[in-house]
Amino acid sequence: MQADRPVTLAAIIGAHGVTGELRLKLFGEGPDSLKRYKSFDAGGRTLTLKTVRDGPNGAVARFAEVTDRNVAEALRGTELTVPRSALPPLEEGEYYHVDLIGLPCVTDAGEAIGTVVTVENFGAGDILEIEKPDGKRFMVPIHATQVEAERAVIDAAFIE
Asked: Do 13 and 79 sit in the same domain of this protein?
């Protein structure tokens, strides 16, 4: 795990009103999850959170550095990140999705099969996308995986 790997918590999807509020697409558990952070990296620029509330398709936030609609519109598409080390600590056996990306994968028999490249959720649960050494990719449900000793161990019954 890289302690300072940036973790995207939201993305700016546009302006809200004329005073510089921003509409956000959230990647966490609602607007309140952003309140624990005072500032975010926004593409190399620091944005200081003043307020955040529920909004259409996510949240509406006000940042100290964004004071009008033009500045807000210019930020459309920008990801809001924090360092991994700023996230709350986890209980034993828990992990953040970002911690899985880049993990080497082996079968439950110990055979190397690839690397986790992304974690998806299409509504039925988390799915790991794994890239084989030949560049081909396949997906397995997270419930078929155990994370141990800095690697993902995949139940061989779920491997193509």
From this structure: yes
